[in-house]
Amino acid sequence: MHREELRERRCAYLRQYYEANREQTRLKCRQYYQTHRESIAKRKKEWRENHREAAREFMKTYRANTFGMTLRQRLDSEKKETEEKLKALGPLTLKVTLTDYLKSPPPPPSMASVPRWLCTLNRFVNRWR
User: 0.90 cut: is pTM over it?
Assistant: First the structure.
């Protein structure tokens, strides 16, 4: 009990200190990065060279787990919504009669010899009579 109480007091003090000295802390951080820019860049470069393969493996698993999973989850949810909408509609029935023009009988031989544009012209003229 006593340790927890001390821990809470210490955390509260640190929070108050941070809140009171926020600007000074930020200024010190900026100054450090400006004065040690070269050494920081050198350390980052060394770390990248030493951990390149591990970082590559991490990114592969990260992409597979986050982007692949979200895409899969989104597709699954869309599929589920579609199924729910189809259930709400009820059984699907065809209400339009279909005519298969490919199976209809060919035109008479006398019409086959007449050019198509002339038939179209005759229909147009007969319509306005």
Answer: no
Helix axes 37-50, 52-89, angle to 10 degrees: 70
pLDDT at 27: 94
Domain ranges of the chain: 1-35
What are the backbone angles phi and psi of residue 56, rounded to the nearest 5°?
-65, -45
- Closest by CA to 12, choosing from 2, 4, 29, 25, is 4
* DSSP code per residue over 68-96: HHHHHHHHHHHHHHHHHHHHHH-S----S
**Other beta carbons less than 10 A from residue 110's beta carbon:** 7
Ramachandran bin of 90, using left for φ above 0, alpha for ψ from -120 to 50, beta for the remaining angles = left
Calculate the average pLDDT of the chain.
81
